[in-house]
Each structure stands twice: as structure tokens, then as C-alpha cells.
Predict the structure.
Amino acid sequence: MLVVVPEPVTPLPVPAPRAAAPSAPAVRLSGVELIADLFECMHDLHFLPDALVGADFVLALMLDKLPSAVALVHFYDIDAREFVVVRAVGAGAAKVMQIRTNEKEPLIAEAMHKRRAVVLDDAATDPRVQNGRWALIGDPPRSIICAPVEEGGRFLGLLELSNPLDGQPFHEGDGHAITYIGEQFAEFLAAHGLVLDPERIGD
């Protein structure tokens, strides 16, 4: 019986692994697309246990959808009529943790009066952001969103973002998105209550 022995197969050369190509810059969602995306995300908020966990969720969501240098979440102290920073992210943001701002501060007062976000596309020379928390942070604000967290005229808090990471200013569509987050967060806080205890808020 003739046995055929196969010739050895020479393996093909394995190409060296390529260096990962830099990823394309993220596209900032806007308008209806952004609101639709937020509508899906906000469902998870209402399953969270308390106000501070909710604040962490909202802060992360804002930064995910509108990447920014600084993000702040305030709760409202009705007895003192002040807004208290309970969560802060960004360079220098730790300096403003638990800082209090009077409800009559011009930028806050405008947002609460309008019941929607105030968008400053050129904040560099705006006198409303030259003092207080923005001066302490040390990252000069170029563009800002300041959005109310209120329900039926009842103040509950405030959401703020400054300096989009893509270098472009915020626009009204971004303001609508943060207004929507603020509305949903207001429903959550109305049901769960606010946390103003400094020890629970932390530094």
C-alpha cells in the first residue's frame, strides 16, 4: 500500500500587531437627538435610594452627554435661602464643595425666574460669573449653563456646567437638555428629600 506523506506546510507570517489608531473625537449630540438619548437614560434615576446618589447620577450624566471642564450640583436650603454645592467635578472644583450662594445671585435668580437654563455662550466678560464659586474654581469660565431644579415654583437645586471640552460654546439646545435633566431631578428630589447635612455631603 502506497502511503503519501504530505509535504510540511509553511505557516503564513503573522503580521505584527498594529498600534491602535486614535479614536475619532466624540460627536456632541444636540437637539432632539440629545433629548431622546436623555429620555432613555433618566429612567434609572428614579430607582436610586437618596438625593446624594441621585446627584452623583445626574453629575455623571451631564458630563457624559456634554463633556465639560467643570460640573456642579447644588441643593437648596430653604431656611437660609441659599444654594449649597453638594457635588463638584473638575479642576479646582473641590474648593467650592459646600459653598453657599444666595438665591438672589444674578445668574441663579435669572435661571430660577425663567424656570429654564440660562446659557452663556461668552462668559469670559460676563460680570455674573466673575465672583463667588466661579472665581474660587480658578478655571476662567468661557461658556456656562445654569439650570434650575424646581417643581411648581419650589426651589430644590441647581445644575451648572462650564467650558465644554470640545472648545465650542454651549448653545440653546444644550440648555434645553440640562433643563430637562433638572426637571426630572426635581421630581426625584421632591419624592426623596434633600440632604444638607455637611457630614453626609462630605468634602
Notes: The beta strands are 68-77, 82-89, 100-102, 118-120, 144-151, 154-164.
